[in-house]
Amino acid sequence: MNNLAAAKNAHGSRSQPSHVVLLSFPFDDLTANEKRRVPIMRAANLRGDFLAVQIISQPGYQGALVLEQDGFCLGFLPKKGFVRPDKWVTLNGSPVIGRTGRLIAEAFARIREGVCVYVGCQNNNG
């Protein structure tokens, strides 16, 4: 399977920003993998690489954004999540297991703004 095909979600269409996908994600010590949901922040490039941020289930990280069920227009999280705008992942589509949901525009904009605050983006709208 090529990278672009692997970046497709479980419904056969490419994942886009605001989609939440399930990944096979390696533990820090690389001894095993866990399944983790991540919101896609930037659509896949021609090689199937995309940018996402991590959703974790444990509170307590400075700057983490709460993500609850009302932040989804499709799908859900098994429990309240916390998005870490400081914890990016740049991935190839191959670890994507499938799409698990889609964020509402307001929730996605809040996460995107959190990422921009972290990296110091400048507003180009004026």
Cα(first) to Cα(last) distance is 44 Å
- Determine the fraction of residues in helical runs and give it as a percent range: 10-25%
The CATH C-level class name: Mainly Beta
Mean pLDDT: 83
Widest β-sheet, arrangement of strands: 4-6-3-2-1-7-5
Largest sheet: 7 strands, antiparallel
Q: Which residue ranges are poorly predicted, with pLDDT under 50 across at least 5 consecutive positions?
A: 1-12
Gross geometry: globular
> What's the CATH topology label?
SH3 type barrels
Radius of gyration: 14 Å
How many strand segments?
7
Beta-strand fraction estimate: 35-45%
Instruction: Spell out the helices and strands N to C.
Output: HEEEEEEEH
Number of domains: 1
Topology:
Elements: H1 3-6, E1 19-26, E2 33-42, E3 49-56, E4 65-67, E5 72-75, E6 81-92, E7 96-103, H2 105-119
Antiparallel strand pairs: 1-2, 1-7, 2-3, 3-6, 4-6, 5-7
Could you give a short description of this structure?
The protein has 126 residues and is an alpha+beta fold. The chain has one domain: SH3 type barrels. 15% of the residues lie in helices and 42% in strands.
Keywords for this entry:
126 residues, alpha+beta, SH3 type barrels, seven-stranded antiparallel β-sheet, 2 helices, globular
Structural description of this entry:
This is mRNA interferase MazF. It comes from Candidatus Kentrum sp. TUN. The chain is α+β, with helices and mostly antiparallel strands and 126 residues long. The chain has a single domain (3-119), classed as Roll (SH3 type barrels). Helix content is 15%, strand content 42%. It has helices at 3-6, 105-119, and strands spanning 19-26, 33-42, 49-56, 65-67, 72-75, 81-92, 96-103. It has a 7-stranded antiparallel sheet with strand order 4-6-3-2-1-7-5. The radius of gyration is 14 Å and the shape is globular. The N and C termini lie far apart (44 Å).
